[in-house]
Amino acid sequence: MDYQGLLERVCHETEAFRGKGKVADYIPALGRVDPGRFGIALATVDGSLYTTGDVDKPFSIQSISKVFTLALALKQEGDQVWKRVGKEPSGHPFNSLAQLEVEQGVPRNPFINGGALVITDILLDHLPRPLEEILGFIRELAGSDSIISDEEVALSEEEKGDRNAALAHFMKSFGNIRHGVDDVLKLYFSHCAITMDCISLARAFLFLADGGRHPVTGEQVLTSSLTKRLNSLMMTSGLYNESGEFAYRVGLPSKSGVGGGIVSILPGHFSLALWGPELNACGNSLRGIEALDLFTTYSGLSVF
Ligand code: GLN
């Protein structure tokens, strides 16, 4: 497969989508990013790397961090996690409060904000220095020491964090948040504020393309069974209320973030990370989705 040619082609053919989306500005620090950035990095399980565009510019990974925190929680608690978080697509925006009351404070899945807050609460039980340990986990996976949490972004989100605070307090009223809401939110905003470039992100997700074993470090990060489950959740819920449309168009387990990143996995083959900060109405990278649609359409490579 000519991955390099393919990446360049989809990058070129999606240039017309520049200017069609909107950078997230509900977190003010994210609103300052250059909207025209775009890059794609593809890392294969046999060790090759293909890149095009802005692949070495760190950006805010936001909800993509929820995959790392879920992986850590699954390592700690395995299936116990599912007593407190569901596995169903929500069909609602990522920050919606609507289902939580009817469903007794148990969020639909670990990738909407409510679910990710519960996962963060679980990590507070197990990790004595949680942010350092989350960062350490990601640095090792990516093979890069330079990955940080951007304090300015975390503080900026905290200042405007009323909705996440509402979600956390509401779940606490059902007993599904056990630590102090402020501690949970602080860790949540800090892991969402982690910045990485496309190359590091593609490398860090490679274990999900190789049955849970990281092909570079050789470490079995997750069992193959949990890896299958994590990929399945990305397929059904990784793009919030656009997960169905995205599965229809792209057909790869993927996770997005409001920083404009999307990471996609083709089990047995590759992990692909892209960045395009202009978002569509669901909070997903607008050009990124177009590029992934073309990528799987031209290559015929998808899980289907
Ligand atoms: N930190 C963001 C929030 O809580 C993450 C959302 C996202 O990337 N979709 O709103």
Features:
alpha+beta, three-stranded antiparallel β-sheet, 12 helices, binds glutamine, 10 strands, Beta-lactamase, 304 residues
What do you see in this structure?
With 304 residues, this protein is of the alpha+beta class. The chain has a single domain, classed as Beta-lactamase. It is 43% helix and 12% strand. The chain is built from 12 helices and 10 strands. A 5-stranded antiparallel sheet has the order 3-2-9-8-7. The protein has a 3-stranded antiparallel sheet with strand order 4-6-5. Strand 8 and strand 9 form a beta hairpin. Helix 7 crosses helix 8. The protein is globular. The mean pLDDT is 97. Glutamine (GLN) binds next to loops. Glutamine binds next to loops.
The CATH homologous superfamily name equals DD-peptidase/beta-lactamase superfamily
Number of strands: 10
Shape: globular
Q: What's the architecture in CATH terms?
A: 3-Layer(aba) Sandwich
- Share in helix: 40-55%
Major beta sheet summary: 5 strands, antiparallel
CATH topology: Beta-lactamase
Mean of pLDDT? 97
The top-level CATH class is Alpha Beta
Distance between the termini: 17 Å
Reconstruct the topology from this structure:
Elements: H1 3-13, E1 22-23, E2 39-44, E3 49-53, E4 59-60, H2 65-77, H3 98-102, H4 113-126, H5 130-142, E5 148-149, H6 151-159, H7 162-173, H8 181-192, E6 194-196, H9 198-204, H10 224-237, H11 243-249, E7 254-256, E8 261-266, E9 270-275, E10 278-279, H12 286-299
Antiparallel strand pairs: 1-10, 2-3, 2-9, 4-6, 5-6, 7-8, 8-9
Helix pairs in contact: 1-12, 2-4, 4-7, 4-8, 5-9, 6-8, 7-8
The protein binds glutamine.
